Amino acid sequence: MSEHAIEVTINGRPVSGRVEARKTLGDFLRVDAGFTGTHLGCEHGVCGACTVIVDGLAVRSCLMLAVQADGAEVTTIEGLAAEDGTFHPVQQAMRDNHALQCGFCTPGVVCTMAALTADDAKPSEDQLIAAMSGHLCRCTGYQGIRRAIRQLTGQPTGVAADHGEHA
Amino acid sequence: MKPAPFDYVAPGTVAEALDVLAEAGGGATLLAGGQTLMPLLALRMSQPFILVDVNRIEGFRGISHTAESTRVAAGTRQAVALADAEMKGAQPVFNLALSHVGHYQTRNRGTIGGSVSLGEPAAEMPATAVALGAEIEIHSRDRGTRRVKADEFYLGPYMTVLEPDELVTAIHYPRWGADAVTVFREVAQRPGDFALVGLVGRVAIEGGKIARAGLAWFGMGPTPIKARQAEQALIGTALSDIDPRGIAELAIADTDPFTDHHATAHYRRTVGRRIFARTLGEALNIQQAAA
Fold first, then answer.
1. Is position B138 within any domain?
2. What is the pLDDT of residues B270-279, one digit of tens each?
């Protein structure tokens, strides 16, 4: 089996490592680089929990080898909030709308939505819902996530904006 | 980390990739977008000695058009092809079928050539190539270049005429003309799932008659299945004489569906018959009595 030296920019910082060819990007992020916010669920491309942003595109990190990410820019859930802890708009929308319960699928969901709304892109509600077909959530019944999508697309959610302060 | 160990090479040119394949003597597996292969590796259903990653090959991506055909380089990402407005205009049913391939997240990595050359019988891209009469451009170091018609490319589930030293470099889709109607219908349990039953194709009409028809099933047999009898019955027939249900019976006769835990063969035939008649009727704007 071959081993490869790689250098990946993760959340704006260069990370280098030496990896077995068979190591997935998801394992590299979690085990080698310590970004355990990326969650590995099924590890064969079905559940979407491990979704991260590679060179601006949301992809499943279990379906990409670490060696393939050599030279790439990767954003994980840890890289989305501002330095001072201010949530990314997608994180804020998820929080405002009770769009998570156990939180296992959440980093992947947030990365998908963040990639689709990056650079001031204005995806439609239908586009975001279609993109959610790439994620399994076993807690929420998806209704909270759909409300978060409505908030992200500038529509009423039917949830009072200040509920979070009193919860 | 679930795959069995393997060596990995990422050639920078087609020639380098062909060298590796020729010297590996059948032990190499090509890695394109990885959206089908990586699960097979994780489940250890595939255990190659050498993985040849084609993602770093120069010039392995891109779409170009001539008056007669559209060439899609094998490494073109599905998401890129789907977003290509010129492609949508030139090959509308390709675009429609592609929108049903996997999910947004998998289309960002998955390639057209990968999907076409793997030959999953329930996938959209192989059947679309068969329906449209596409040709598959294949290179090898020792035997040069050949082109294989898509309907002669598939031998069985995940089995094609590709030799171990060969690489698919492009798919050539004939242009059907802007007037040809599109035929597409897929029944799946969820968006992005493999089709239980699917139908894809185009039909060209001239002077009130069918001039040309290309129709193929997916999920209806061990390979994508060309609906030859239905095509032959349609060609030359006046629109006013077409009975979509009769044509659907001919189309079903060419299928060989299977039973698995998602659907029985009987279900696939029943649904296939219905969607064929309805989709063809709608595409040709033929009024039908309710069933």
1. yes
2. 999 999 999 9
The pair of three-digit structure tokens given for residue A80, joined into one six-digit string: 């989305």
Class of domain A89-166: mainly alpha
* Contact assessment for residue B207 and residue B243, using Cβ atoms and an 8 Å cutoff: no
- SS3 of residue B53 by DSSP: strand
Query: Which chain A residue has its CA at the smallest distance from B50's CA?
Result: A1
CB contact under 8 A, B106 and A58: no
- Homologous superfamily assigned to A3-79: Beta-grasp domain (3.10.20.30)
pLDDT tens-digit map of B95-122: 999 999 999 999 999 999 999 999 999 9
Look up the domain containing B226 and give its range.
181-284
Query: Which residue in chain B has the smallest CA separation from A71?
Result: B56
Q: Is B34 on the interface with A (CB under 8 A)?
A: yes
- The DSSP line for chain A is --EEEEEEEETTEEEEEEEETT-BHHHIIIIIS--TTSPPSSSSSSS-TTEEEETTEEEEGGGSBGGGGTT-EEE-GGGTS-TT-PPPHHHHHHHHTT--SS-SSHHHHHHHHHHHHGGG----HHHHHHHHTT---SSSTTHHHHHHHHHHTT---SS-TTHHHH-
Q: What is the ipTM of this complex?
A: 0.93
Closest by alpha carbon to B4, among B45, B32, B35, B34?
Answer: B45
Domain end, chosen from B118, B141, B174, is at B174
Cβ-defined contact of A44 to B34 (cutoff 8 Å): no
| pTM score, whole prediction | 0.94
State the CATH number of the domain containing residue B164. 3.30.465.10
Percent of chain B with pLDDT over 90: 92
Per-residue tokens: A75: 């954003």
Report the CATH number that the domain containing residue B38 is assigned in CATH.
3.30.43.10
Compute the nearest-CA separation of B287 from chain A (Å): 31
